[in-house]
């Protein structure tokens, strides 16, 4: 009977240990994902400062094309914000992040057996929608910016063998409820929202 009680107790302890490890890992990854989301909100706000027309000095034109993240992406659809990939070496902004929350170069977004690189651990998607549509010559408009950060669930974590930070994941309406597969596993997701407006011309 003593052995039976010991085995039951040991099984309970192992179960609790697994739950504790999973809880600690989820908390750490959620904290990193929050930091990534805040960083991308700041990047969008900084990018919108390049959008300075229309205004008193340029009533009939819009120079939103200077805002590389905004230009052509105010569609109300989720997208992978990879406009800066390849613009510098190494890239200074990326939709993919490693386990420490650092931007990954384009070449490291997908796992590589040759180099042993695990691929992206976190992925950012952005959705831009007009709150107040731009109406030239005088109405600059107001944009709602949604940022979501997703990462695979489970203790093992990490990207699946085919990678996951791509346009396929950006197209998912709700990554947390998608049907899991080898390419699209179950995800944890956090969201952050801000508004973007034209910056007054200096």
Please provide the ordered H/E string of secondary-structure elements.
Answer: HEEEEHE
What is the CA-atom radius of gyration, in angstroms? 21 Å
Query: Helix- and strand-based class?
Result: alpha+beta
Percent of residues in helices comes to 25-40%
* Strand coverage percent: 15-25%
For the termini, the CA-CA separation is 82 Å
Question: Mean pLDDT, nearest integer?
Answer: 81
Helix tally equals 2
**What overall geometry do the principal axes of the alpha carbons give?**
elongated
Q: Strands, helices and their partners?
A:
Blueprint: H1 2-48, E1 78-79, E2 96-97, E3 122-132, E4 142-152, H2 167-170, E5 187-197
Antiparallel strand pairs: 1-3, 2-3, 3-4, 4-5
Describe the structure.
The structure is a single chain. The chain has 202 residues and is of the alpha+beta class. It has one domain. The chain is 25% helix and 18% strand. It has two helices and five strands, in the order αββββαβ. Strands 1, 2, 3, 4 and 5 form a five-stranded antiparallel β-sheet that branches. The radius of gyration is 21 Å and the shape is elongated.
């Amino acid at each position: 009977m003593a052995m039976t009680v010991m085995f039951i107790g040991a099984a309970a302890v192992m179960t609790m240990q697994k739950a504790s490890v999973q809880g600690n890992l989820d908390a750490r990854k959620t904290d990193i994902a929050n930091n990534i989301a805040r960083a991308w909100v700041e990047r969008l706000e900084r990018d919108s400062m390049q959008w300075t027309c229309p205004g008193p000095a340029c009533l009939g034109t819009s120079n939103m094309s200077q805002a590389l993240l905004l230009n052509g992406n105010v569609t109300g659809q989720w997208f992978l914000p990879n406009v800066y990939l390849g613009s510098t070496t190494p890239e200074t902004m990326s939709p993919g992040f490693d386990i420490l929350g650092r931007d990954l170069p384009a070449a490291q977004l997908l796992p590589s057996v040759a180099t042993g690189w695990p691929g992206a651990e976190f992925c950012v998607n952005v959705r831009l929608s007009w709150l107040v549509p731009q109406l030239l010559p005088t109405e600059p408009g107001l944009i709602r910016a949604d940022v979501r950060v997703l990462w695979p669930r489970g203790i093992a974590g990490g990207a699946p063998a085919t990678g996951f930070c791509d346009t396929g994941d950006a197209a998912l309406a709700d990554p947390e409820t998608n049907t899991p597969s080898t390419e699209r596993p179950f995800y944890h997701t956090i969201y952050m929202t801000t508004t973007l407006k034209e910056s007054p011309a200096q």
